[in-house]
Amino acid sequence: MSQCQADGAALQRKRLRRQQRWLKRLAVTSVLVGLGVGTWAFEDAAGPQGLKGILPQEVPAALNAEAFQSLGATWQEWSQGAAAAIADFYKAEGDIAAQKAALAKVKVKLGVLNKAISDSQYSMILEELLAIRGPLSRRVAVAEAVLTTLETDPVAARAAAVQSSGAQVSSAFAALKADLDPIPGGAAWIPFIGGDALGTAWAASVDSEATIAALKATHAKLALRATLTDEAQKAFLSRTSFMTLGSAIETHLATVESAKKPVDLAATRAALAELVDALESYEISSSSVDAGEVRAAADKLSGVAPDGGAAVKAALNEHYFNLNLRLIASESFLNRLLSDCRIEQGQVCDYILGAQVGGWQTTSTGITVDVKPSDRLARFDVVLSGVVQSTTAGRTPQATIYTSGYHTFHSTKEVTYDGMKFGTGPAATGVNAHNTTTGARTRLSGFPILGKITENIAMRAAADRRPEAESIAAGRVWSRVTPRFDEEVDKAFSKASGELDSQLVAGLKETGLYPDQQVLASTDDQVWLSSRLMGDGKLGGAMAEPTLLSVGSGAAMLMHESVVNNAIDQIGFNGKKMSEAELRLHVEAFLSKALAREFKFRSPEAAAVGEAPAPVAADVAPAPAPAEGAAAEEPEDKAPAKLAFAENDAVRVQFRGGNLYLIIRAGLERENEEPIPAHEIVVPLMLSVSGDKLVVKRDALEIAPLEGEVKPLQQRVMNTRISKALPDREVDATFTLKTTDKEVPAKVTGIQIVDGWIVVRVE
Asked: Which of 54, 118, 221, 655 falls 20 to 30 Å from 615 in CA-CA distance?
């Protein structure tokens, strides 16, 4: 079975899962209710134990025996053992100890995958290994978290949670005092918010009735900011330290209240079952509906689990809420963008050590970037290196001294980027000055004996004063180089910060595309920018495989399918009816708003330049054969039509098995024709780089109605329409990167698609 067929079958299974999900949840809940809310230390043997009833009854398609065949004959024996271990684990037989033993066997197989992935001798099947390791590692992490949750001692867990949230209150209260102490009159705000009473109660207990009353009183005082009429008082009470304390108190009160509730084993198991079920559906569909159900189940679990869902949340943070966009640039690549060379010439006119100095000088400079390690910022030095060469004549009443100067200098200036703006440090400059006296002339020059004697005397005098002259020359170079270097770098990166804010950040925030989390770091030779676009009811990325992050001398972008799907949701296709032209305008308007500048797709005429010609009939994927007795549809359907997008998940993408799958859920409304109801159209797109071209090839479409029976004639029409709109294409792999003062050619050198990630490499 091809990857396309496999995914199509998976999508069909997903639809069946949706229809049966409520039945499963009802059955699970009914069984679990019988367990009651008694002792947590063991589970009634009459009911489900451990993972039984929580894991799916069948092995997920991504981990069944067929999935391992991609590893080839060399791995056949290992693959059979791995598939068998996974199948045994999903049976969830026996008690928790037996299930842990089965899970341990699966983890051994996972360890082999991890070892092979890090071994260069298996690089030829790296993508196949990753395609198995990713789905397996996610399931293992969730299963371990479920078992941890089920075995958690509720008394100890809740006591630890109360102590932890209490520590946050203590920390916030101490930070508030530290913030107010230096401010005249600041300490008077502590009694105002009830801090004295809170401090007394807190010293005795973090959760007594007196402490809870004091916490509520302080929280009420902090909430008064909304009712204050004095703007100065309102602004002061809105300081970060006050806000942080208020948030910490809210969390602690909720934690204390939750700790009083009895442990509900049935509710916890039901929430775990819902979560695992939603995760399995999301693994197949990448659906926003399934993502929302994952988030809802996780929230439900946090309210009923003895550990507040902490174990499961840790697994979700790593595998489903992780960063989903990573940009990596090597030092070499940054130097291509930011390096610069200049040559400047000018006259010398100065007064040094009693001499009037005149002549010419040439200054040659080069700017490079030196990346520095940082675990919280993108950090690098802008390095200015240069040579000042001069030819001068220093005139005094006694003599004229001719000098050749060769002065080198080296300046560094630190630049940091925190995800919002650039920061710069002061420049540090070192100068190495060197003068060579090339000749002298005196009033007696030209006389055979006296002229030579006086010239030698003048040159010796110049040599004696050379250290002082070189020191002065170094000072002159420093005073010319450092302020200018400081000013130009500060100006350039201040401008860059402003442009980022006005031309990118503002638009992304307005359109909901600005990341909710960013992490920046740098090493000795790379800069990393990682971010997450998730939002309420959405999911983020999975773990990014380190082997995909290597960039050599270039740069790379790793994008998880979740960031694309979350962005698509913001564009807003759901429920809309649009012609092809209206669809283009809709997307152009959104991107223009997001990018804070006009965005236009290339016209069909321009797009045809240097690209493959428009597809002929052979380029169109074959349509399904019409049902027996159905009227034949003309291949060329020219009736004006509009896509009627589904109310949910109208457009999705999946990065699987080396292909990009575009999934469209839409019907078709045509003039004077019966409308075609919503279908799910799966478009497999294969991306590759061939020479100087980025090649996009489309495989055969898979089309299935969202509801009702299959009507081949309707499928034929949808096939023809979508196939014509998405022909095979070739576009230039080369492009231009624009900096503040130059354009740098670049080229896409490779594309990888594996386990939800697309990796684009650039040189």
From this structure: 655
Compute the CA torsion angle 72, 76, 79, 81 (nearest 10 deg). 180
Residue in the block written with tokens 């090597």: 330
DSSP-H helix ranges across 118-264 = 126-151, 154-180, 189-192, 195-204, 209-222, 231-237, 240-259
Judged against a pLDDT cut of 90, whether residue 575 lies above it is answered with yes
Buried/exposed 184-201: b ≥16 CB within 10 Å, e otherwise: eeeeebbeebbbebbeeb
Q: Residues 652, 539: contact at Cβ < 8 Å?
A: no
DSSP result, 711-747? -HHHHHHHHHHHHHHS--EEEESEEEEE-SS-EEEEE
Chain segment 383-411, per-residue pLDDT in tens: 999 999 999 888 988 888 899 999 999 99
The encoded tokens of residue 65 equal 């025996």
State yes or no: pLDDT of 44 exceeds 70: no
Determine the 3-state secondary structure of 13 from DSSP: helix
Q: How far apart are CA 61 and CA 570, in angstroms?
A: 31
Q: Is pLDDT at 563 greater than 90 in this prediction?
A: yes
pLDDT interval class at 498 (50, 70, 90): confident
Q: State which H helix or E strand residue 12 sits in.
A: helix 3-33
pLDDT at residue 2 above 70?
Answer: no
The Cα–Cα gap between 694 and 716 comes to: 29
pLDDT above 70: residue 34:
no
Record the tokens describing residue 269, joined without a space: 């198991």
Distances in Å between the Cα of 139 and the Cα atoms of 9, 55, 357 are 21, 10, 79
Whether the pLDDT of residue 75 is over 90: the answer is: yes
Residue 740 is predicted with a pLDDT of 67
Alpha helices (H) in 265-338, listed in sequence order: 265-285, 288-304, 310-319, 331-338
Q: How confident is the prediction for the chain on average, in pLDDT?
A: 85
Contact 393, 358 (CB under 8 A): yes
DSSP conformational letter for 621: P
Answer for the pair 284, 320: CB distance below 8 angstroms, yes or no. no
**Residue 695: exposed, middle, or buried by beta-carbon count in 10 A (0-12, 13-18, 19+)?**
middle
Stretch (H or E) spanning 369: strand 355-372
The residue behind tokens 């130059």 is 742
**CA separation for the pair 319, 341 (Å, rounded):** 46
Integer Cα distance of 653 and 682 in angstroms: 9
Judge whether residue 126 has pLDDT over 70.
Answer: yes
Going through 42-191 in order, the beta strands assigned E by DSSP cover none
Count of other CB atoms within 10 angstroms of residue 707: 8
CA distances from 396 to 319, 436, 553 (A): 78, 18, 55
Which residue type is seen at 73? A
- Report how far apart, in Å, the C-alpha atoms of 571 and of each of 533, 538, 585, 758 are: 14, 15, 12, 21
N residues, the chain: 763
pLDDT at 608: 42
Distance CA 40, CA 269 (A): 12
pLDDT in tens, 189-200: 888 888 888 888
